[in-house]
Amino acid sequence: METTKKTVLITGGTEGIGFELARLFAKDSYQLILVSRSEEKLHIASKSLETEFNVKVHTISVDLKNHENTKQLYQDIKELVGEVDVLINNVGQGEYGKFLDNNVDRELEIIHLNIGSYVILTKYFLKDMVERNRGKILNVGSIAGETPGPWQAVYHGTKAFVNSFTEAIRNEVKDTDITITLLRPGATDTEFFDKADMEESKMVQDGNLADPAKVAQDGYDALMAGKHSVTSGLMNKIMVGMANILPDNLAAESMNKQQKPKE
């Protein structure tokens, strides 16, 4: 296999946007580290990438909902490859339904995963990047973070955190050569909706979902160009613009109509 000079770490890298990002980095001869809970999916994804692009792919099976696991992941990667040039925080889950009806333990798991893993990995790897004054981070947020989200209240809240957090830390390191980019996808054709038990929502039933390869390309291009953020898709750009104009109560009502079960 070809020896690569740069390494990218991708959480949730076995499917959807994460896997499509992995393909783009593999095409550019990066050494890959894919992180996921599923050893089977890691095996399938790594073999696919190694066969197609002749690059080295490391895989690590870990549950990032557990904060101690996430901290240990950093140490394991340091021992495995030493330096990580690019960090892609992509992992994320949701839970569909009314907040009053959903299980609080499951919602707390989502908060630990969608927020905790981003904070921990960014903290540790960004310190290394600043020390050597080199590196890139892509945080996968969402247009969901720009508006309140009935039927996915906790998920929207976690993405609001990611969007705000990314912009804040980017500002803090603006005088370095580190670039931090926020990718805001809209509803995308991945396994997210199946895992969130969201198949009945109007948004999914109407079938107007983005291609994960296109979303990944938008994020990759923005990251490599050193852009602060990118919203993938024209309609999503319009939705973000409208969310910035509408009062929160009207934005929430609009999202309620999109996400409630289709009659």
From TrEMBL:
Q: Secretion signal: which residues?
A: none
Asked if the record carries the keyword Oxidoreductase, the reply is: yes
Q: Which domain of life is it from?
A: Bacteria
Cite a single GO MF annotation. Answer: oxidoreductase activity
Task: Could you list this entry's UniProt keywords, alphabetically sorted.
Answer: Oxidoreductase
Q: Which InterPro entries match?
A: NAD(P)-bd_dom_sf (IPR036291), SDR_fam (IPR002347)
Q: What does the similarity note say?
A: Belongs to the short-chain dehydrogenases/reductases (SDR) family.
Query: What protein does this entry describe?
Result: Oxidoreductase
Q: Which organism is it from?
A: Anditalea andensis
